[in-house]
Amino acid sequence: MVKLGFVSQLPFTHMGMQYERLSDGGVAIYKYEHLLAIKPIPVSYPKDLSQVLDSQLQSSFRSLLCSVLYDLQTRMDIACEITQLQTYNKAATYLQLKQANGLLKRAQEDCRHMGLYFRPLVLPLKLASVADASHATASSSYAQEGGLILLCHDSPLRTDLHHKILAADIPLVGGLSLIHI
């Protein structure tokens, strides 16, 4: 196993990210201390949540979103929701403020073991590409799209399958494709 200076001296914190060694030799990266330090915006919600926020609450809304946005480096599970809320940075309503406070609460509830996990890899390896997209909704005129490229262990292909694999790039259901290396 190759030791990379700072990686062999785990655990440590750098730029708010906690790095630690896993029991299987892998590495985990978390940012939950920063996330737990963020406070929700205290506000009394009016009956009509479609009212536009005043300038002070609008500034607080932006600060909350940017604070949570910093944690996206290790929390891809909240990426879609936080980016959708960022479209209201100039003219948010009480509804978006309530959604932002709710997002923060959910993100903080399950943050202790949410992060990036880098497990030791065993040859042979494969690249797996996962992509998905949504559609426009009543509150947006555009779709959200996302993609992941993963490096992972590859088990030998099964020969008892009922179909033949004819190419190295194999398209699968839901935008998943495998590239064998």
In words, what does this structure look like?
The chain is built from four helices and eight strands; from the N terminus they run βββααααβββββ. By secondary structure, it is of the alpha+beta class. The relative contact order is 0.14. α2 (55-70) runs antiparallel to α3 and α2 packs parallel to α4 (94-109). β2 (17-21) and β3 form a beta hairpin. The protein is flat, with a radius of gyration of 21 Å. The protein has a four-stranded antiparallel sheet. Strands 6-5-8-7 form a four-stranded antiparallel sheet, with no helix packed on it. The longest helix has 16 residues, at 55-70.
Give the topology.
Elements: E1 12-14, E2 17-21, E3 27-30, H1 32-37, H2 55-70, H3 79-86, H4 94-109, E4 116-118, E5 125-133, E6 145-153, E7 169-171, E8 177-180
Helix pairs in contact: 2-3, 2-4
Features:
alpha+beta; disordered C terminus; 4 helices; 4-stranded antiparallel β-sheet; 181 residues; 8 strands; 25% helix
Brief rundown of the structure:
The protein is α+β, with helices and mostly antiparallel strands.
Mean of all residue-level pLDDT scores: 80
Q: Would you count the extended β strands for me?
A: 8
Number of helices: 4
Strand order of the largest sheet: 1-2-3-4
Radius of gyration: 21 Å
Overall morphology: flat
Q: Which class best fits the helix and strand makeup?
A: alpha+beta
Helix and strand string, N-terminal first?
A: EEEHHHHEEEEE
Question: Low-confidence runs (pLDDT<50, min 5 residues)?
Answer: 162-181
Give the strand content.
Answer: 15-25%
Largest sheet: 4 strands, antiparallel
- Helical residues, percent: 25-40%
Distance between the termini: 21 Å
